[in-house]
Structure formats: C-alpha cells, structure tokens
C-alpha cells in the first residue's frame, strides 16, 4: 500500500497507482489539462509557419546571418508543430508525414554549411521532435485516464478542466464552452447579466 496527497488529503492507494506523477507533493492535480482539438491552434501556428519559413529559408543564404537563420528555420518548424501538444496532434502528425516523405525522396532545398547539404540532418531533427510531441500527447492522455479512474475508485470529485486550463495558461480560455455571437456589445452585456440573475435565483 502507498498514499497520495490529493487535494490536501492523504489517500491510501495501491503502490502501482503512484507510478505516474498525477498529483504533486502539495496535493495539486496534473497542471496540463486533458487533450483537446483546437482548430484555432492548428490554423494559427500553420499560418505562422507559412509566413516565417520561406523568409528564414531566403535569409539562410545571406552571408553573416545564415547560421542563425538556418537554426531558426529548424527551430520554427519544431515550435509551430509542437507548442502546447495537448491542443492537437494534427500539426505534429502532418509535419512528421511531410518530413518523412522529403527524407525518403532525398528532397533538398539548397541548404548548405560550407558546401555540404544539411537537409537530412534537419529532417532527422524534425522527425525526432514530432515523435516526442506525439509521445507527450499520448502520455497526457494516459495520465488523465488514470486520474479519471482514481476519481471513480476513491470518490474524488472530478476536476473542472476549464479551471485547470485557465490556471495553466493564465487567462479565461472558455475551455469546453460554446461562445454565442451577439449583434452588439450591449446585447452581450445583457446576456451576461441575465446569466448572473439566473445563477443567483438558482
């Protein structure tokens, strides 16, 4: 037998249930929220890559700054594919497929260091990062499956994912909410006031 500090209370659990770091020593649950599919993240980071990568490729041929631009090119791909992997796996999967195809067909973009092509090394780096990103998302999925299981088993209240998401990123994310659109700002304020009134009456 073992015990975990969960929400400030020591709970007796089976030893193998303490293998994954689901709660920290202060009793707080895993900070990274449950995996979601955020289309805005896919679109936003894809647009960022679409505009920055051609510019960095062009600047990688400029003397004196080519090493920085070459490194920035590879780093930008990794960042755009992997920032906040809990938001989606499509970016990493798409980049992994494209990069693997480019590596397989030996596609080169005239990226050289002292005359040597370095595309293959960039491909290997990006493929490795994409696999790590997908592994992190899978790990987060496994962690939350175990948290849900332990909540059911030990009578722990299920965690509000919106609260966790807001605390994780530091602003109101409207996680899991469908935000309606209004014709005017005043109409939106009236709707908010109506919701508060209904909540107070309830």
Descriptive labels:
two-stranded antiparallel ribbon, flat, 202 residues
Description:
There is one protein chain. Helix 1 runs antiparallel to helix 2 (66-82) and helix 2 crosses helix 3. By secondary structure, this protein is mainly alpha-helical. Strands 1-2 form a two-stranded antiparallel ribbon. It has a two-stranded antiparallel sheet with strand order 3-4. The protein is flat. It is built from six helices and four strands; from the N terminus they run E-E-H-H-H-E-E-H-H-H. Strand 3 (112-113) and strand 4 form a beta hairpin. The model has no long low-confidence stretch (mean pLDDT 88).
- Outline the biggest β-sheet: 2 strands, antiparallel
Helix content percent band: 55-70%
Q: Tell me, what's the shape?
A: flat
* Terminal-residue CA separation: 43 Å
Strand order of the largest sheet: 1-2
Q: Which radius of gyration do the C-alpha atoms yield?
A: 23 Å
Q: Give the percentage of residues in beta strands.
A: 5-15%
What average pLDDT do the residues reach?
Answer: 88
| Secondary-structure class | mainly alpha
Provide a brief overview of the structure:
The chain is mainly α.
Task: Write the topology of this structure.
Layout: E1 2-6, E2 9-13, H1 39-59, H2 66-82, H3 90-104, E3 112-113, E4 116-117, H4 119-154, H5 161-169, H6 185-201
Antiparallel strand pairs: 1-2, 3-4
């Amino acid at each position: 037998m073992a015990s975990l500090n969960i929400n400030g209370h020591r709970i007796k659990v089976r030893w193998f249930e303490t293998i994954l770091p689901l709660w920290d020593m202060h009793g707080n649950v895993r900070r990274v929220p449950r995996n979601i599919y955020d289309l805005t993240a896919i679109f936003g980071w894809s647009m960022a890559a679409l505009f920055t990568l051609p510019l960095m490729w062009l600047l990688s041929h400029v003397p004196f700054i080519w090493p920085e631009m070459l490194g920035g090119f590879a780093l930008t791909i990794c960042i755009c594919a992997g920032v906040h992997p809990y938001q989606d796996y499509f970016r990493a999967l798409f980049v992994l497929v494209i990069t693997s195809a480019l590596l397989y067909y030996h596609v080169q973009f005239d990226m050289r260091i002292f005359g040597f092509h370095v595309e293959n090394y960039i491909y290997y780096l990006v493929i490795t990062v994409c696999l790590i990103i997908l592994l992190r998302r899978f790990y987060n999925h496994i962690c939350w499956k175990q948290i849900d299981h332990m909540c059911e088993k030990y009578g722990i209240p299920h965690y509000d994912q919106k609260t966790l998401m807001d605390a994780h990123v530091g602003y109101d994310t409207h996680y899991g909410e469908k935000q309606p659109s209004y014709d005017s700002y005043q109409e939106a304020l009236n709707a908010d006031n109506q919701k508060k009134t209904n909540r107070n009456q309830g």
